[in-house]
Structure formats: structure tokens, C-alpha cells
């Protein structure tokens, strides 16, 4: 393969944001919520230092032969600031982020929110996955899937 041939690469950038939330579904009774979510259903909420790693994929894109990059990291940093840090950092997800007024603020749904927010800013087809670390043990990976068969 010559140096000018298309080479595919994935680029990632990490950010960390802090937020609080309460796991509570309006579709369930208080007793059912407590049983399902346990201490995470605390009426006063609880907090996390979320570490999110967004992987930018090549999909139909390769390493640009002129710049040598998949994407300029300065641009990616700005997109992540707008899509993640501004709406989520140091916020009460349930009270400060309109998306979560009707959606339970699980890490799965945080990953979907981040995916949707980044998709609006990034070039089409470049986002590969969103990986959100709620704790050292709990990680959610979302790749834009719309539905699953159960």
C-alpha cells in the first residue's frame, strides 16, 4: 500500500464531567422505583464524576492525506465542549437538562443524549461510538442503534 492510499483510523478524546441525578421513572410508583433503583432513587439525588470517551470513527472517512488527521483535535474539543460539557457539567440532569425531564437519567440515556448532541455537530457518518464511564465498574457503550429485538 502506498503512502497515499487511504488509511483508516479511529480518533478518541476523553472528557470528564460531574453531574447529579435521581433514577426515577414517572411510569412507576414510588415503591416500584425504590425497589428497581435502590439507593440511586434517593429523593435528593446522588452524583458522579462521569468519564466519557467519544471515539470518532472513519466509517467512510480515512486519514486525510494532506493534514494526516481523521479530524482536527481542536475542532473535536470544541464540539465536545458544546455537546457535553456545556449542557451536562455541574448540572442536575433531571432538573437542568430538558431532555431528562421525560427520560430517566440512566447512564444508558446519558450516552444516547451525548450521541445525539455530537451527531448534530460532527461531520455526518464520522461518530463511531460513545463510551460513558459512570464509575470504574460501570460503563455504557452506545453506537447509535435505534432499537433491539427482545
Automatic annotation (TrEMBL):
Pathway: Cofactor biosynthesis; tetrahydrobiopterin biosynthesis; tetrahydrobiopterin from 7,8-dihydroneopterin triphosphate: step 1/3. The gene is Pts. It holds the Pfam family PTPS. GO terms for biological process: tetrahydrobiopterin biosynthetic process. It comes from the Eukaryota. This is 6-pyruvoyl tetrahydrobiopterin synthase. The keyword Cell inner membrane does not apply. Belongs to the PTPS family. Keywords: Lyase, Metal-binding, Tetrahydrobiopterin biosynthesis, Zinc. Its cofactor is Zn(2+). Its EC number is 4.2.3.12. One of its GO terms (cellular component) is mitochondrion. Involved in the biosynthesis of tetrahydrobiopterin, an essential cofactor of aromatic amino acid hydroxylases. Catalyzes the transformation of 7,8-dihydroneopterin triphosphate into 6-pyruvoyl tetrahydropterin. PANTHER family: 6-PYRUVOYL TETRAHYDROBIOPTERIN SYNTHASE, PYRUVOYL TETRAHYDROBIOPTERIN SYNTHASE.
Amino acid at each position: 500500500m502506498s503512502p497515499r492510499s487511504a488509511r483508516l483510523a479511529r480518533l478518541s478524546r476523553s472528557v470528564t464531567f460531574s453531574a447529579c441525578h435521581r433514577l426515577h421513572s414517572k411510569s412507576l410508583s414510588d415503591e416500584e422505583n425504590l425497589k428497581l433503583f435502590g439507593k440511586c432513587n434517593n429523593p435528593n439525588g446522588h452524583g458522579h464524576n462521569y468519564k466519557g470517551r467519544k471515539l470518532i470513527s472513519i466509517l467512510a472517512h480515512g486519514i486525510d492525506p494532506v493534514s494526516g488527521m481523521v479530524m482536527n483535535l481542536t475542532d473535536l474539543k470544541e464540539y465536545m465542549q458544546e455537546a457535553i460539557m456545556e449542557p451536562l457539567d455541574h448540572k442536575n440532569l433531571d432538573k437542568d437538562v430538558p431532555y431528562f425531564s421525560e427520560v430517566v437519567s440512566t447512564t444508558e440515556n446519558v450516552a444516547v443524549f451525548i450521541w445525539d448532541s455530537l451527531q448534530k455537530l460532527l461531520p455526518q457518518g464520522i461518530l463511531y461510538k460513545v463510551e460513558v464511564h459512570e464509575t470504574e465498574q460501570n460503563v455504557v457503550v452506545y453506537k447509535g442503534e435505534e432499537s433491539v429485538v427482545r
